[in-house]
Amino acid sequence: MASALFDRRRINGPETSHPPLYEDELSQPSTSTASAARTSRAPTDLRPIFLKTGLITAASGSAYLETERTKLAVAVYGPRQVKNAPYSSKGRLNVECKYAPFASATRRAPLKDAESPHLSTHVAQALLPSLRLELLPKMQLDVHVTILEDDSGEHGLVSAIASTASAALASAGVEMKGLVVGVTAAMPSSSSALPLLLDPTSAEARAARAQVTLCALPALGSVSELWVSGALREGEEQGVLEALMRAGRDVHGVLVRALVEEAEAERSRSEGEGAR
Predict the structure, then answer these.
(1) Exposed, middle or buried, 115 (CB in 10 Å: 0-12/13-18/19+)?
(2) What are the tens digits of pLDDT across the range 32-48?
(3) Which of 80, 180, 216, 250 has the most CB atoms around its CB within 10 Å?
């Protein structure tokens, strides 16, 4: 069994390791709590988002997202015809998420883990309402997600992947009803005076009593996915959803600007080739 899991193409390090600790680091206060982590931005502020589309030239469409210590890349292939499959009047969406071995503090094996299918299911549910798959009979869209660094937790990753994948699908020229954006909120423990934290880090997510991830199409004012874990207080959900919808409109603007920049760059490239 051990030989079957051994990957001869990589230099495998030890299963467990610990970083060195220096004297000046030991004297610093711990930043593992949610209150200590949220010092550089307001509770309702999102982390700065860098989004670039069209970076993977071999794919039909692609997008790269970086928001501080969360980084991921999405590649879209297709639509392609599904061979040896029964006829279907609607196309299919296949989403595959995987972690890079160095994506988290603990090294991950280069094989599939239990979290990846869970993320793929939520992302597919978020994207499906935005796609016009009835225009792609007996076709399939493949969305491949590589998580390069994770500082958002499962809820935050679902929202980040959904936004990035939607931009990659638009970059591929897939017919869509609108762009999907995802935002996550964490409700701190009862001892905290903060009502909610938008776009939580991994430390904030672990300390939260509840998390809510909302994926929506702001252009249509519709919701495509809502994932709640933990216990919300009575009457709390309305304020949380309103805050998530407002933040989603800001993320939508980032996606639109990235796609416009890609279209303008492509037009300039075409005009330059035509002038020759």
Answers:
(1) middle
(2) 444 444 677 889 999 99
(3) 180
